[in-house]
Each structure stands twice: as structure tokens, then as C-alpha cells.
Amino acid sequence: MNKVQKLNADFINNPDTFTRENLDNLRQIVNNLVDNVNNLVMVVYDVNNETGDYNTVYSLSTAIKKVAATRRQLGMRIRFKNESGKFVEYSYCGSDLTDSQFKDSSNWAGGVELVDGGEF
User: Fold this and answer.
1) Distance of alpha carbon 101 from alpha carbon 106, whole angstroms
2) What secondary structure, in 3-state letters, does 68-81 show?
3) C-alpha closest to that of 68 among 87, 95, 107, 42
4) Is residue 108 classed exposed, middle or buried when 0-12, 13-18 and 19+ CB atoms within 10 A define those classes?
């Protein structure tokens, strides 16, 4: 945050002397922020949102199967509409991302009901 405050002060106080280095620093800050947001978004996999179908209901095991291998992460969370019509969220607690570990329902904790349909 100090970098942003310094860049802001430099620009406000001396807009004509805003350098290429200042601009490169600002780009790096923005890129880091975007990377952080992308990482946060990737931690949660909303099955109904990803499939574009909020009417389909899933069991934990069928929801797990919908998560693409490229989206798997240790500690990730999945959200989906369960057989009771409630949106729930589970967290992956397995020790690795092998197919057998990831698809093992006992490696998922939670089942917490979400409010307002589970959307962000």
C-alpha cells in the first residue's frame, strides 16, 4: 500500500514528472492485485454457476466429479445445490490432488448451507 500512496503523492504533486518507472511500478501493483483476485476466485468452484444451470441438484460425490482437474487445489471449496434444494459448501481437506484422494467424499468437510443461493 505504501507504493500506491507514494505513486499517488508523486502524481498529484508533480504530474509532469511522473516517470516511466512510476508507470511500471503502477502496472506491477495492478497486475499483483489482479493475480490475487484470480487466486481467490479459483479457490471456490460453484458447480451450478460453472455449468450455467441453477436447477440441477448434486450430491457431494457428483459435485466433486464436476470439478475439472485444472481447477483442483488443496483447501479449495465447492458450492452446489444439493438434493434438498439448498446451496451448500464443502472444503477439500485431502493431503494431495490425486484422483483417488480428490474424489473421496471423506476428504471433504462442511456441508454448510449458504444464504442467498450461494452466489458471490
Assistant:
1) 9
2) CHHHCCCCCEEEEE
3) 42
4) buried
Domain parsing of the chain, residue ranges: 2-40, 43-118
pLDDT of residue 21: 84
The pair phi, psi for residue 47, each rounded to 5°, is -60, -45
Chain segment 35-92, per-residue pLDDT in tens: 777 777 678 999 999 999 999 999 999 999 999 999 999 999 999 999 999 999 999 9
- DSSP notation for the chain: -HHHHHHHHHHHH-GGG--HHHHHHHHHHHHHHHHHHHHHHHHEEEHHHHHT-SS----HHHHHHHS-GGG--TT-EEEEE-TTS-EEEEEE--SS--HHHHT-GGGEEEEEEPSGGG--
Question: b vs e for 47-66, b when ≥16 Cβ sit within 10 Å of the residue's Cβ?
Answer: bbbeeeeeeeebebeebbeb
Q: How far is CA 106 from the centre of its chain?
A: 22
